[in-house]
Amino acid sequence: MKLRTAFFLNTNKMKFITLIVIITFNTILHSQSQTGLVQYGHKQSMGMGAPIGIDYNANLIFDNENSLYTFAKDSLEGGHIRESVYIEKDKDNFFVNSKITNKLGFQYYVDKENKKLLSRDIGFNYVKEEIPTINWEISDEKKDIGSFECLKASTEFRGRTYTAWFTTSIPLPYGPWKLQGLPGLILEAYDTNKEIYFYFKSIKYPMDSKIKIQKPNSESENKEWITFSEYKKTLINKHKKAIENGRMLIEGFDSADTAEDKYTMGNSYIEIFDNE
Amino acid sequence: MKKILFILLCSFVSFGFTNERIEPISENESAEITLPVKVETYNFPYENGTITLTIFDNGICEQGTVTGTLSTHCDDDGIADYVWSGTICREHIDALIMQFNASC
């Protein structure tokens, strides 16, 4: 009798352990299945008034905890690119810009748990900041992107007014570049006149295999992390210097009109800062 | 080395500008030669080096003027190093782009 009771208890114990193992396994499997990869087109037409500018390939890898958006990366374009692009808007207006990629690309990593946004941003600066709070206004307007029904949201963020289309089918708050904080994944976003334009190309979700989402690694380039405020100052100073440099060169030309300093930060960068 | 290359490049541009306006002389038609555009280059000190400027001394825009913005990135880091916005002679655009790129 004693032996039978012991056997019965052991069997129950075994069942309990098996159940725990199954639950744990399922949890791991479930969390793995949440990994996704979105491919976007990343078009920058700053100052052009229409989406006619430089077009990059971009990736967003995400899971339940983090996301990493990358663009202007050599491997995403099939090799290193460095070229001046002449863009004729109409018969009276032209733009000359550069399409340039680099080995690691520009990276934007959202760490949900620690509420940090880590970037390998312009100037190859490693920038650490709190995840910016973006006050989105969600409307009832809907449209389909791929096989996803998306809702429209709009906001003002760092000098530009953005419209975003997000899907609640993937209830994760990520998106292209630094745009995030909606109750679903952003599949398309653009500013006024689509000078900045992130457009959807494809998605794999859930992915069959787990991809490790690696945060930007400043040590790999022997660089220090800087604050967003420091980054902002650096960029403003670089922009001022670039205008001076450009003016010095153009003064040598016999232009029909004198060079005007109407080249704002918005002509060069996605983010436009107040005290430029 | 960069300076030498830049000066050579400027000379090449200057040469191109000087010569493109000379019409070929055909035996059957009256020779019409457009006077070459006067081009000057000079250097001036800038930071730790010098910048060579090319001056196109042509007051007439034969192809009209065009308004544009120009942004040159010298490195791969996304920083615009030379930016400009304004109106120029249409025929000067290529030389302008070359001059901006050569200044990197």
TrEMBL record, chain A:
This is GLPGLI family protein. It comes from Subsaximicrobium wynnwilliamsii. The lineage of its organism: Bacteria, Pseudomonadati, Bacteroidota, Flavobacteriia, Flavobacteriales.
UniProtKB/TrEMBL annotation, chain B:
It comes from the Bacteria. This is Uncharacterized protein.
